[in-house]
Each structure stands twice: as C-alpha cells, then as structure tokens.
Specification:
single chain, mainly beta, Porin, two-stranded antiparallel sheet, 1 helix, 70% strand
Length: 255
C-alpha cells in the first residue's frame, strides 16, 4: 500500500514538473508572411508588327535646264499628303528601366500633291503644273527608351530611303509633259509611346521626320513633251499607329 502511494506521488510530481517547464518555455515568435511578388513588364525580345497612318511631304522645285538648254527658274513649293501602311521588325533588350532596340520598317505610301508652277511656265503663266508623289519609304533605326512597367517612351534615329515620282503636266488638260522617278537616302529621327496590354502584345503611336537632301533629276519627255532637268528638295513627316507581337515567352519578369 505504501508503495502504491509513493508511486502515485511520483507520477503527480512528474506531471507538475512537465507542466511547469512548458509554461516556462518562450512563446514561438510570429513570422510575418512574405510580401507578394510584383510582376514587371519585360520589353526584351524580337518583335514583329504592323502600322498605318498619315504622312505629309514638302517639295520645292527649281528648273536647271529646259530642252537641253541651261534654264534657271523657281517652280515653287507644295505639300503632298496621304495614307501610309506597312510593317516593322526589330529587337529590344531591357536593362533596369532602360530599353534599347534596333528596328527595320517598310511602308507603302500614297502622298500626292501638286501646284501650278510659279513663276515658271511653258507658253503662258499658269500653264505648267508640278506633281509630287511619295510611293514608299523604309526606316532603319536605333532606339533608346525608358519604361514604366508596361508603358514605354522612346526616341529613335537612323537612315531612311524614299521612293518618289515627279511629273510636269499642262494645267488645263493634265496632259503629261515629262516625268522622273527617284529613290534617295536620307536621315530619320522620331519618338514614340508604346503600351503593353498583354504579355506579348503592345500598341503605340509614333512620329517620324525624314530629312532628304536636294537632288538634281533628269525628266524624260513624254510623247509630245519636252525633257528637263530639275532640282527638288524634300522632307517628310509621318504619324502612325502601331501594333507589335513580341516573341520569346511571357512579357513579365518578377522581383
């Protein structure tokens, strides 16, 4: 009986000791859950897209020769404008918020314009009309931009090539006197804004200015017309809306 009592006392003492030790242990510290991982748009990778918009060109004409004889006279300046449409392909790489890129763009164009030549004429003042048309252009440019997540602002610059056609016509009848075609190289600068609306898709708007040097062109005579040589200066302004698809996986990087 005595042994039984002693055993019960020992068990009770052990239980009290274990409870006291548990009470003395420090509470487990609270660990805050990690913050959610933020998603950031990544502009790096190859892309291809399309564009469309409007352009205008300023054309200034001067006679250099008429029917093979030296002849100097101003024909005046006029604007040609119309629609442009085409595509672009390029590559961008992003370092922090900086975005660098290379792009090639090719566009069909229909920039048409004309004016009655002044003061030059063929038989009487007002009988000669000069006509200018830009038929296509290409841009080969580098880009530097700054990204705010999926919004990108950039500037660009590089080389441009432009295909144009010029004609002289009689004002009253629109009969062709002579014509010349010209493909010339120049320089281009521009700026744009782009917005990534999906991991691989972006839309934007862009402005480009093309500088073209003055050039002397020979005009071939049409049947019943006359050959001339003319000096023509030209520059072009273009505004386009763009859409791009970027290859190389999702456009989101995480930190």
């Amino acid at each position: 009986m005595k042994k039984t009592i002693l055993a019960g006392v020992a068990v009770a003492a052990l239980a009290l000791s274990t409870h006291a030790q548990a009470a003395d242990m420090a509470a487990k510290p609270y660990v805050k859950a990690p913050p959610p991982i933020a998603a950031v748009y990544d502009w790096s990778g190859f892309y291809i897209g399309g564009n469309g918009g409007w352009g205008t060109t300023r054309n200034c004409w001067d006679f250099v020769s008429f029917a093979g004889a030296p002849f100097t006279a101003s024909e005046g300046c006029h604007n040609s404008d119309g629609a442009v449409a085409g595509g672009q392909i390029g590559y961008r790489w992003q370092s922090a918020a900086w975005v660098f890129g290379l792009e090639a763009q090719g566009n069909w164009a229909d920039l048409n314009g004309s004016r009655v030549s002044s003061p030059a004429f063929v038989f009487a003042p007002g009988d000669l009309t000069i006509n200018s048309r830009v038929r296509a252009f290409g841009l080969f440019t580098g880009q530097v931009g700054w990204a705010w997540n999926n919004a990108l602002l950039y500037v660009k610059g590089g080389a441009a090539v432009v295909d144009s056609r010029y004609t002289h016509t009689f004002t009253a009848t629109s009969a062709l006197i002579n014509s010349s075609s010209d493909t010339r190289w120049g320089a281009s600068v521009g700026a744009g804004m782009e917005y990534g609306f999906a991991p691989n898709w972006s839309v934007g708007v862009e402005y480009d200015h093309i500088f073209l040097d003055r050039r002397t062109l020979g005009f071939a005579a049409a049947p019943g017309g006359v050959a001339t040589t003319n000096s023509i200066g030209q520059d072009i302004d273009i505004v386009t809306a763009r859409i791009n698809y970027r290859f190389g996986g999702p456009g989101l990087m995480r930190y």
